Amino acid sequence: MNAIASRVTAGGRPHAMPRPRWQWPVLGSEQLALVASLYFAAACNTTFFGAVIQRGGLHGAQGWWTAVALFVAIAALHFLLLCVLFTRWTAKPVLVALLLTSALAVHFMRDYTVYFDTDMIRNILHTDPDEAGELVNAGLLPSLLLLGVLPSMLAVRVRLRRRTWRRAAWIRALSMALALGVASLAILSSFQSVSSLMRNHRELRHLVTPGNYLVSALRVATEHPSRPKGPREPVGLQARVVGRPAGTRPRVLVLVVGETLRAQNWGLNGYARDTTPALRRIDPVNFTDVTACGSNTDVSLPCMFSDVGRANYDKQRIQSRESLLDVLDHAGVATRWIDNQSGCKHVCDGIAHLSVSHAQDPVLCSGDRCLDGILVDALSRTLDETAGDRVIVLHMLGNHGPAYFNRYPHDARAYLPECRSAELAHCSREEIVNAYDNAVRYTDSVLARLVATLQADAGVDSALVYVSDHGESLGEDGVYLHGLPYAIAPDTQVRVPMVMWFSPGMQASRGLDLQCLREVARRPASHDNLFSSVLGLMQVQAPEYRPGLDLFRPCLPATGA
Question: What is the pLDDT of residues 72-85, one digit of tens each?
């Protein structure tokens, strides 16, 4: 009766009891890790499962079981990973960081078919703010808000259970052992299908999120630094110029390194559009079948200037050795690097170099970029400032995406309508290709102006060699941009244009048979040919020179270097 009386007001009427206030659940770190791992497996791995389906990995009735096994294994393995990262103090901040980062990863995997392997992580780390800014746009917001911000807001409200360290350690060990057992059983239950899938399509592991970027980032962090802390291993210390009588005219080789220009859209290669009208009038030697050393700049640029090359590719060895430019320098050939990109990736370390990417030119430069026309003025000034035999490298901005429309001036638009957005998903494929081809035509015009600059210098024998660092995907099979693992990179990302022009004086002084070189240009070539070909053209003798890779050697007199 006393309990009942306590609910009655003085006037004799009962009043409503206050409703209990809802509270956020109290979870152990392992419970939070389980929820998070299930979320990651379900919400952040749609691209992975889509790729598995595309490769026929979930075919037939057995495919459903394989899908379940993969889902359980992915969730269990991520649970193990989170158990390593989570404590009562780190769980929330680590989870929020993973949620936000995974949301961004999902966006780029889904919209651009990005694989987060070690090369892609290096690309991200080495990308300058201007390039990164073009990828940060409104298209990121849906993924970031739905997959990152919203679950993060829920995660920070969860209360974590306090435990003694003994009990916490015991529970953590048991949970991890159980997760390892579940992952093993899931894989074994469909072992033939899963093992076959991952053996034949190893690149798929770079789509499993967030494990893909975490493991790749760890590998990059623990590998040897890309730039040696001490002196690099010397290359070509015995190099010297041979067969050059005193008093002969100086030679100038301009080596133009293109950016993201693929062979398929190169007019001189037979593309349906004439994207190279200016070069066609000059009639250079055009190499029709050239393979790049990598599918991204971070791999291709150091590789093409190295004596190691793709055939014996070893990233650490390439980064720890001097480059082609050092060999030329040892031989007494002056070298200079002029950059309108994000740097030379250590190729020009110790060599005279100049960046013009932020030059103050009201016509060619905006607040954050300069068009490649700035390189024409830079070459002209360099020719006036230097003398003797020289090799000048011009590193172009080229067709770097996704903002292809920013790579050429407004009055150079030949193909319309063009994609005027860095969010390629907002444009039709026709608009994307139009913008890309406009950028190709602008590169063509810049190369023609560079040739004209060399022709105007009557005091030197000159040559120009242009080769792109890698290609680009423009939506074929849903793939955009570049940087796919080399083993699965399509031809659009690894086949590149290469052209050569020679002044009459250079042809005569070297005895170069141009018709012979045109025949050579019909055969397959690669970035591996660059090192020895440049040495051969400049008559530099060095132990690292390999005659079989010198494209000019078959077309030079028997006494040529």
Answer: 999 999 999 999 99
